[in-house]
Amino acid sequence: MWKSLKWILIKIWNYSAKNMLGETICIFLAGSFQPISAWLLQNLIDAVGSIDLRRGGIMAFLYILGLNLHGLTVSIREYCKAAVCRNVEEGLQRDTACKFSRIEYQVFEDKEKRDILQQIADRPCEQVVLIYENLLEIAGNVFSFAGFLWLLSQMGSFIPAGFCALSLLNMCFSYRALMISTDLFFDQTADEREMDYLGELLETKSFLAELKLFGAVPYIVELWNRQSRRVLRYRLKMTAKSQLLFLSGALMNALWVGVILGVLIFRLTARSITLGMFVSLFNSAVSMIALSNLFSDHVSQIAGNAAIARLYGEFETFPEKKSRHEEEHRKKECGLEFRNVYFHYPGSEAWVLKDVSFVVRPGECLAIAGENGAGKSTLIKLICGLYKPQKGQVLIDGRSAADYTDAELKKALSIVFQNYERFHFTVRQNITMCEDEKGGAEEEKILEALKAAGCAELCDCLDSQLGTEEGGMDLSGGQWQRLAIARALYGESKYILLDEPTSAIDPVAESEMYECFRKVLKKRGGIMISHRLASTCVADRIMVLSEGAVAESGTWNELIKSKGLFAQMWDIQSSWYGGGRIDGKTV
């Protein structure tokens, strides 16, 4: 935990050093005012009781001055506190967003790391600030506590020692109670993620439409209710345990206040203390009980929320894509290359790719065919540097794909994924993925990309918002896919990667699209994956994958004549369109 606290203090100092220093000074001043005020009140009452007007006047003046100074200190502290909160929130969110952009893709495949990412994505900045504020409160409370102990030492050493023991016991109870809450925080992350997913199914239009068609809405609702009840039962159980510990501490405090009051009344009636001392010491005792509770609460909250600092610490250690300076010899264009690549996904020992080797030269189009699960989409992920192969090399122009920065990848590759995203930005932002200036040569490039992708109808509404959630235009599935294709065509990358790019487009538009791909790929080169084997006709070469290995490679004519796996898949697929026999049945 100490390492987490050190991390927090260093972060806050880096983000808001001056305000942190100002708030620290104010908290110590405020902490010293409380015992001093109690001592001044004691002397004021005794002076009034003894009719010492001169002494009483001085004490009254100092007491009122202290109250005013305390109010001024609190105001200054609140200003510094607000500034610290603002600066820390801005700094943490900025650094977190930058870290997310640099994390290696394989981190998202790890369940434990994914839990941490989810908790960090919930922006727990206020919890980091809360830990810092609790640390300051503890420092001020310790200062006040020490002053009250000095006042109570007028009654001997028994009372101060009792307060110290009681405070330690309260702190142990509170710490244990907050540890229960911390365990609850970590234990329920996976359960809450499942609840969120089920809730998303019921709230998202695309999911809900399909669920209604299959009559599955009641089933999903029941799953959500079942998971919700399980989460709630566990929360109630753990909360009851923690509150029982807090109740035990409260009962001890009440008994101790009764003991102190009895001792003070006895001493007052025995005339061994003055009325001023009685009032001052009783107020000090009550204040120390309150400080003891606050101290326990602060320590417990720190212990509970320190988990967030630990999460940030682990988050900062997640591997990143390394930025390297591009050397001159790396600027040559020698194509996309796999050299004896073996790969399996994290957490699995099953090889997805086995000894895969091929080269795609600049200006050459390679079509990749194969059955589902053959490893076609995995090839794309390796080229994009999302994963590193366990054996072999994946090279872009002679350089390892994993060594490319995001900016370098953007220059090297344009990609249309099978599962493309629907960004609820303007049409212009969907194409450029940045704040592009209106007009000029860049706008002409946007219009050309839209027309090439078959989205000419969007050319007149570049600044229209997309997505019905924001009150914008709603596009069909085919339009969204053509927009994703236009995004890939807009860039000036050397190579284009197409992973099932026309799955939501009608056959006529698809034919026109592949003709567009053929022209673009002749200029740039790249890889095209499609289950519709007719599209492979536009490729210069076809590679067939089977069970993660290269089964055959060649031109369309060569593969058809060889009567291998590609020819078999071609015959089966084309029979559905032109007639033929499948499993002895006439089609």
Question: Would you write up a description of this structure?
Answer:
Helix content is 64%, strand content 10%. It is elongated and about 115 Å long. The relative contact order is 0.08. The chain is built from 17 helices and 12 strands. The chain is α/β, with parallel strands linked by helices and 587 residues long. The protein folds into 2 domains: 2-316, ABC transporter type 1, transmembrane domain (ABC transporter transmembrane region fold); 348-586, P-loop containing nucleotide triphosphate hydrolases (Rossmann fold, 3-Layer(aba) Sandwich), CATH 3.40.50. Mean pLDDT is 80; it is low at 325-330 and 579-587. A 6-stranded mixed beta sheet has the order 6-7-8-3-9-10, with helices on both faces. The protein has a 4-stranded antiparallel beta sheet with strand order 2-1-4-5, covered by helices on one side.
Keyword list:
587 residues; ABC transporter transmembrane region fold; alpha/beta; elongated; disordered C terminus; Rossmann fold; 6-stranded mixed sheet
In short:
With 587 residues, this protein is an alpha/beta fold. The chain has 17 helices and twelve strands. The protein folds into two domains: 2-316, ABC transporter transmembrane region fold; 348-586, Rossmann fold (3-Layer(aba) Sandwich).
